[in-house]
Amino acid sequence: MGSLNKGVGKVEVSLKWDPSPAGAPDHDLDLIAAVYPVAEPQGTPVYLVHFDSRSPDGTITLNRDSRNGQGFGVDESMTLELQRLAPAYGRVVVGVAVQQRESRIAFGDVANTRVTVKEGYDELESHDFTDVAGATAATVVEFTRDATGGWEYRRAIRGFDADPQSFTTLMGGPRP
Ligand SMILES: [Ca+2]
């Protein structure tokens, strides 16, 4: 468990990785956010945000989406306006999943992957997935509502051996 860091509001999570070598299947990584109710912060997500799922209240937005890691700079980026989330929502977990092909693709198979969490120009977290190299999905950071209604965050690097769909059902669970 990382230390608690209080007072976050509007956060951007960005992800980049290098394309697979010429001739090899594309490496497609996805940023995924899951929102949980105050009443059941480790239960079923109220909603998910990723390339194929939008936030119904517009508070969490996937601004950029890539299927292959090509191009310069950030490949996927997501903005979380935590201070605008409904009071009934108490926890948000953000992770990254690797789309699986015919053969299993883990973080260790993808070159130069890095996720960065920023608030404005302040970098809150940055991680390269080397300590979850054998995993196919991982949580990165979690945000929780504190007693005053503000938001705090903590680093939450935890690897899973799961495809993206299964990961969305596991990512909010308690730590083993
Ligand atoms: Ca993607």
UniProtKB/TrEMBL annotation:
CDD domains, per database record: TerD_like
Name under which the protein is recorded: TerD family protein
Domain TerD: 5-161
Domain of life: Bacteria
One Pfam family from the record: TerD
Coiled coil: none
Family: Belongs to the CAPAB/TerDEXZ family.
Taxonomy of the source species: Bacteria, Bacillati, Actinomycetota, Actinomycetes, Kitasatosporales
InterPro entries reported in the protein's UniProt record: CO_DH_flav_C_dom_sf (IPR036683), Stress/Tellurium_Resist (IPR051324), TerD (IPR003325)
